[in-house]
UniProtKB/TrEMBL annotation:
Family membership: Belongs to the Mrp/NBP35 ATP-binding proteins family.
InterPro entries: FSCA_dom_sf (IPR034904), Mrp-like_CS (IPR000808), Mrp/NBP35_ATP-bd (IPR019591), NUBPL-like (IPR044304), P-loop_NTPase (IPR027417), YlxH/NBP35 (IPR033756)
CDD domains tied to this protein: Mrp_NBP35
PANTHER family: IRON-SULFUR PROTEIN NUBPL
A Gene Ontology molecular function term of the record: 4 iron, 4 sulfur cluster binding
Main function: Binds and transfers iron-sulfur (Fe-S) clusters to target apoproteins. Can hydrolyze ATP.
Alphabetical list of Pfam families matching this protein: ParA
Protein name: Iron-sulfur cluster carrier protein
UniProt keyword annotations, A-Z: ATP-binding, Hydrolase, Iron, Iron-sulfur, Metal-binding, Nucleotide-binding
Region annotation (Disordered) ranges: 86-117
Keyword match Signal: no
Record's compositionally biased regions (Gly residues): 99-112
Coiled-coil intervals: none
C-alpha cells in the first residue's frame, strides 16, 4: 500500500470550484483523512454544516480529479464529515446513585437507570447500543430485528448503523434509497415502521470497510450530528464489533442508556462478550442484558434441535456476570435468507421460532424502555 502525497490531494481540492467559481473545495472544507488501498483513494473532508450543500455537488468532479492526479489511484471515494458547531445539550435520563460495585443492568424489573453521558440527538428519548465483543456473531441481525420489533411494540424507533467498517443495514432492511437532505441535515429513510440511517447509504457497502480511525470517527460523528431523527422514543445503535477505540469513543460520545450484548454460545465468543460487558461497565453504561444468537440449530424438516455450539453458554455467562439474559435465537437459514432479502424475520415470518425469539427480545427491551421513558404502552404503532 503506497501513501499518497497530501499536497497532491490538497491541490485537487484547490482546483475544484463551485459552478459560480467563487469558492474551491479547499475554501469550504479541510482535508481530514485519506488512504489509498487497492487503487481506491478514500478521502474524508471536514467542513462546517452550512458548507455541506455547496460541497456535495462537487464530489463527483473532485473524485475524477483525484483519480487523475494521484498516482496509482484508479477510483476515489470522498465523504464529507460535517460537524455541528454547537452540540445541543440534552437532558440525560435521570437515575439513582450507583449502588455498590459490579454490573448495573438496566433495571428490567423497574426503577430508574444510571445517567448516560454525552448529548442525546435532539428529539430522541433514549439511545441504546447493540454490541458484541467479536464480529460475525449476528449483532447487526439482532439490531435490525430488535429495532423493527420495538417498532411493532408501538415505540417510535430509529436505527443507526455505526458499524461503518461493514455497514449491512441497507441490505438487511432492503433500503436502496439515499437519504434526503433538508436544511443541510440528512433525513433518515423509513422502512418496516422505523427510521434507519447507515453510512452504507452514503457510500458503497464494500468501500467503508477499509477506513482507518479518523475516517471512521468522522463518519460516526456525521451519523450522530447531522441526521435529523425527528421525534423518537429510542435510537438503536448497531455498534462496530469489538472493544477498541471506535467503540469506546462512540459509547462516550452518545448518551447511551443501555447496551444489549450479542454472543454465540462458543467459549471464544463468550470471552469477547465478557470484554464487551466490561467495556460498558467501565463507561457506566448499564447492560440491558445478553442475547444468545445461533443458540441451537432447528431442522426445518423435522424440527429436531441440535446444539451445535453447546447451547446455554450465554445464559450461564450472563448469570455469572450478573446481567439479565434476554433470550436465545436459533441458527436458521431463514434468518440469513430474510436478512439477505431485505425483510427482517420479525416482518417476514413473525410467528416462526426465530420471529418469536426476536419479538420476545423486543418485548422485554420495550418494557425496560417504557419504564425509562415513563410511557404507557401504545395500542398502535403511531408512525
Ligand atoms: N440466528 C441466525 N441464523 C442464521 N444466520 C444468522 C443468524 N444470525 C446471523 N446470521 C447470519 O450470519 C451473518 C453475520 O451476521 P451479522 O452481520 O448480523 O453479524 P455481525 O455480528 O453484525 O457481523 P459483523 O460484526 O462482522 O458486522 C449474516 O449472514 C447473517 O444473516
Amino acid at each position: 500500500m503506497t501513501s499518497p502525497d497530501r499536497t497532491t490531494i490538497e491541490n485537487v481540492l484547490r482546483h475544484v470550484r463551485t459552478t459560480d467559481g467563487t469558492a474551491s473545495v479547499a475554501d469550504l472544507g479541510r482535508l481530514d483523512a485519506f488512504m489509498l488501498r487497492d487503487g481506491v483513494l478514500h478521502v474524508a473532508i471536514a467542513t462546517e454544516r452550512g458548507h455541506a450543500p455547496a460541497l456535495q455537488p462537487l464530489l463527483p468532479e473532485l473524485e475524477r480529479g483525484l483519480v487523475h492526479a494521484v498516482p496509482g489511484c484508479t477510483g476515489a471515494s470522498v465523504i464529507l464529515t460535517a460537524h455541528r458547531a454547537t452540540p445541543s445539550p440534552a437532558p440525560a435520563p435521570t437515575a439513582p446513585a450507583p449502588a455498590g460495585g459490579g454490573h448495573r443492568p438496566l433495571n428490567l424489573g423497574g426503577g430508574a437507570p444510571k445517567p448516560a453521558t454525552g448529548p442525546l440527538p435532539p428529539g430522541v428519548g433514549v439511545v441504546i447500543a447493540v454490541a458484541s465483543g467479536k464480529g460475525g456473531v449476528g449483532k447487526s441481525t439482532t439490531a435490525v430485528n430488535l429495532a423493527v420489533g420495538l417498532g411493532l411494540e408501538g415505540l417510535k424507533v430509529g436505527l443507526m448503523d455505526a458499524d461503518v467498517h461493514g455497514p449491512s443495514l441497507p441490505r438487511m432492511m432492503g433500503m436502496n434509497a439515499q437519504p434526503e437532505v433538508r436544511d443541510s441535515r440528512l433525513i433518515p429513510p423509513h422502512k418496516w415502521g422505523i427510521s434507519a440511517m447507515s453510512i452504507g447509504m452514503l457510500v458503497d457497502e464494500g468501500k467503508a470497510m477499509i477506513w482507518r480511525g479518523p475516517m471512521v470517527m468522522g463518519a460516526i460523528n456525521q451519523l450522530l450530528g447531522d441526521v435529523d431523527w425527528g421525534a423518537l422514543d429510542v435510537l438503536v445503535v448497531d455498534m462496530p464489533p469489538g472493544t477498541g477505540d471506535a467503540q469506546l469513543t462512540l459509547a462516550q460520545k452518545t448518551a447511551l442508556a443501555g447496551a444489549v450484548i450479542v454472543s454465540t454460545p462458543q467459549d471464544i465468543a463468550l470471552l469477547d462478550a465478557r470484554r464487551g460487558i466490561a467495556m460498558f461497565e467501565k463507561m457506566n453504561v448499564p447492560v440491558l442484558g445478553m442475547v444468545e444468537n445461533m443458540s441451537y440449530f432447528c431442522c426445518p424438516n423435522c424440527n429436531h434441535r441440535t446444539e451445535l455450539f453447546g447451547h446455554g453458554g450465554a445464559r450461564a455467562e450472563a448469570e455469572k456476570m450478573g446481567v439479565p439474559f434476554l433470550g436465545e435465537v436459533p441458527l436458521l437459514a431463514d434468518i440469513r435468507a430474510s436478512a439477505d432479502a431485505g425483510a427482517p424475520i420479525v416482518i417476514a415470518a413473525p410467528d416462526s421460532a426465530a420471529g418469536q425469539a426476536y419479538r420476545a427480545l423486543a418485548h422485554t427491551v420495550a418494557g425496560a424502555l417504557r419504564r425509562l421513558l415513563d410511557k404507557k404502552p401504545k395500542t398502535t404503532n403511531e408512525k
